[in-house]
């Protein structure tokens, strides 16, 4: 129900419903349906038309935009993307970020989240703060799961600074199928943790660079939910272990 408030005391309607479709995707879905119906009804190519119609439903599903329960805490660094963690490594800064004031010097922890075409593709702010800078870099469209994609693929960096000076950088990376990075925000915007900040069309990757003195609180292969999964506790460094089932 539109406008219905949910809370942790049992208030609101918890029934299942179709998630909202982000406006960015509605036109793509309608275009896909129109082409499918033309193939099916005008050209009478049923063998092709029915699969295309099913694919049209997939286009709408790609742009789904479910609500999220954003955890509260000044030390929390949240996942900006739905997907699977495919890389956790100490790395040097990308060349375009190496000289940005306020970022930690030397190697930093980078957590990479790969988004398949089946994941929600709305990206969200990992922390609350001011969007200090956005840096767009043209590049290739290689497989976003490769390590070299961080420096070769088309990408967009976002640098978010909290009131206490803590800075978190994230990078939206285009891939083989993803051909456009769409921001919802601009330089100087004040962001809330978990706020929608953009999307990458049709499968790709997001890198998160952790602040100094902070280590990941997630594991390789773990599934993440944008705006809900805690990637790290800012200022905390401790070993995290899990069991592969």
UniProtKB/TrEMBL annotation:
<keyword id="KW-0443">Lipid metabolism</keyword>
<keyword id="KW-1133">Transmembrane helix</keyword>
<dbReference type="GO" id="GO:0004609">
    <property type="term" value="F:phosphatidylserine decarboxylase activity"/>
</dbReference>
<comment type="subunit">
    <text>Heterodimer of a large membrane-associated beta subunit and a small pyruvoyl-containing alpha subunit.</text>
</comment>
<feature type="transmembrane region" description="Helical">
    <location>
        <begin position="28"/>
        <end position="48"/>
    </location>
</feature>
<comment type="pathway">
    <text>Phospholipid metabolism; phosphatidylethanolamine biosynthesis; phosphatidylethanolamine from CDP-diacylglycerol: step 2/2.</text>
</comment>
<comment type="function">
    <text>Catalyzes the formation of phosphatidylethanolamine (PtdEtn) from phosphatidylserine (PtdSer).</text>
</comment>
<keyword id="KW-0865">Zymogen</keyword>
<keyword id="KW-0594">Phospholipid biosynthesis</keyword>
<feature type="modified residue" description="Pyruvic acid (Ser); by autocatalysis">
    <location>
        <position position="204"/>
    </location>
</feature>
<comment type="similarity">
    <text>Belongs to the phosphatidylserine decarboxylase family. PSD-A subfamily.</text>
</comment>
<dbReference type="GO" id="GO:0005886">
    <property type="term" value="C:plasma membrane"/>
</dbReference>
<feature type="active site" description="Schiff-base intermediate with substrate; via pyruvic acid">
    <location>
        <position position="204"/>
    </location>
</feature>
<dbReference type="InterPro" id="IPR003817">
    <property type="entry name" value="PS_Dcarbxylase"/>
</dbReference>
<protein>
    <recommendedName>
        <fullName>Phosphatidylserine decarboxylase proenzyme</fullName>
        <ecNumber>4.1.1.65</ecNumber>
    </recommendedName>
</protein>
<keyword id="KW-1003">Cell membrane</keyword>
<keyword id="KW-0456">Lyase</keyword>
<feature type="site" description="Cleavage (non-hydrolytic); by autocatalysis">
    <location>
        <begin position="203"/>
        <end position="204"/>
    </location>
</feature>
<keyword id="KW-0210">Decarboxylase</keyword>
<keyword id="KW-1208">Phospholipid metabolism</keyword>
<dbReference type="GO" id="GO:0006646">
    <property type="term" value="P:phosphatidylethanolamine biosynthetic process"/>
</dbReference>
<keyword id="KW-0812">Transmembrane</keyword>
<keyword id="KW-0472">Membrane</keyword>
<keyword id="KW-0670">Pyruvate</keyword>
<dbReference type="InterPro" id="IPR033175">
    <property type="entry name" value="PSD-A"/>
</dbReference>
<dbReference type="Pfam" id="PF02666">
    <property type="entry name" value="PS_Dcarbxylase"/>
</dbReference>
<keyword id="KW-0444">Lipid biosynthesis</keyword>
